[in-house]
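Practice problem. Given the sequence and the SMILES for zinc ion, write out the predicted structure.
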Amino acid sequence: MALMFPCPQCGSRPFTEFWCGGELPDGGHGAAGDIEADYARVWLKRNVCGDQPERWFHHAGCRRWISLTRHTVTNLIHDVV
Ligand SMILES: [Zn+2]
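Answer key:
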């Protein structure tokens, strides 16, 4: 069975309808214009083994971004916004 994402606008949809926008930063990345903080936010991913906050774009549906928390091992999804 395909991995299903719960879109707040469209309901449960297959993951192939979404593009991954990557990990959400965990906050505390310094002031605007801080080059090292910007570099870390864009390029240094945590790639955790466990719950990871992510952004996904529903390109084949409502064309909106959603935020969710996905377990990187089991693909269980919760905290969808
Ligand atoms: Zn949608």
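Check your answer against the key. The CA atoms of residues 49 and 80 lie 19 Å apart.
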